[in-house]
């Protein structure tokens, strides 16, 4: 395999990125709610080439019991990449990266979950990456937040996540795989609709001005994703209400 670096790739052509997007444009996003019948809440999301599924179980009893918290529920988040999710087959099972992403993703969601409502219990969040195309942590957080809402878990607000990056000395929104692999920096965030940031990480180097621009761009992307999350939830429960009304009419007849 030939080694490549950022100088070997032209990231822009005629002012557009390799996939035809502008610098401040998200990849296509698709969100489906409630796709798993046996989960308390679930969500399937596509962000560009990412395909991620999230499932929520609970609140339920904690096992083993010594893990119980007397005053609140504990939140467990498991991020996993399927061995077939990347081009070069990944060794099955958890690794150091999956442990790290599980931890930071849980910490991004936990501040908005009203855990005090469910003492001595656990809320389990499982995120499975079926196909990876850069930004799996942000896609997983977005799917997990919708799955929590679908499960009826009380939350202060929704959490939405997006990343900005630096490629070819330009700040771009929602980097794809080539931009992530050969770019100069990556900055994923998670935030509430009010702009309270619950996750911020950075890999690479940005000047103070570039950092400010990247944060502003990522926050705008997260707000756009929030609107898509909200619409997906409204669409599901509007359909349920419509179906219930039709059933009532049928019974009356």
TrEMBL record:
Q: What is the top-level taxon of the source organism?
A: Archaea
- The EC number on file is 3.1.13.-
Could you confirm whether the keyword Nuclease appears in this record? yes
Residue span(s) of domain Exoribonuclease phosphorolytic: 25-154, 158-221
GO annotation (BP), single: nuclear-transcribed mRNA catabolic process
Question: Could you say which enzyme class this protein belongs to?
Answer: hydrolase
Gene Ontology cellular-component annotations: cytoplasmic exosome (RNase complex)
Location relative to the cell: Cytoplasm
What is the first-listed, main subcellular location in coarse terms? cytoplasm
* Keywords, ordered alphabetically: Cytoplasm, Exonuclease, Exosome, Hydrolase, Nuclease
Kindly name one Pfam family recorded for this protein: RNase_PH
SUPFAM superfamilies assigned: Ribonuclease PH domain 2-like (SSF55666), Ribosomal protein S5 domain 2-like (SSF54211)
Q: Does this UniProt record's set of keywords contain Nuclease? A: yes
Question: Annotated Gene Ontology MF terms?
Answer: 3'-5'-RNA exonuclease activity; RNA binding
**Sequence similarity:** Belongs to the RNase PH family. Rrp41 subfamily.
**According to its UniProt entry, what is the function of this protein?**
Catalytic component of the exosome, which is a complex involved in RNA degradation. Has 3'->5' exoribonuclease activity. Can also synthesize heteropolymeric RNA-tails.
NCBIfam families given in the database record: ECX1
What does the subunit section of this Swiss-Prot or TrEMBL entry state?
A: Component of the archaeal exosome complex. Forms a hexameric ring-like arrangement composed of 3 Rrp41-Rrp42 heterodimers. The hexameric ring associates with a trimer of Rrp4 and/or Csl4 subunits.
Q: What is this protein called?
A: Exosome complex component Rrp41
The gene is: rrp41
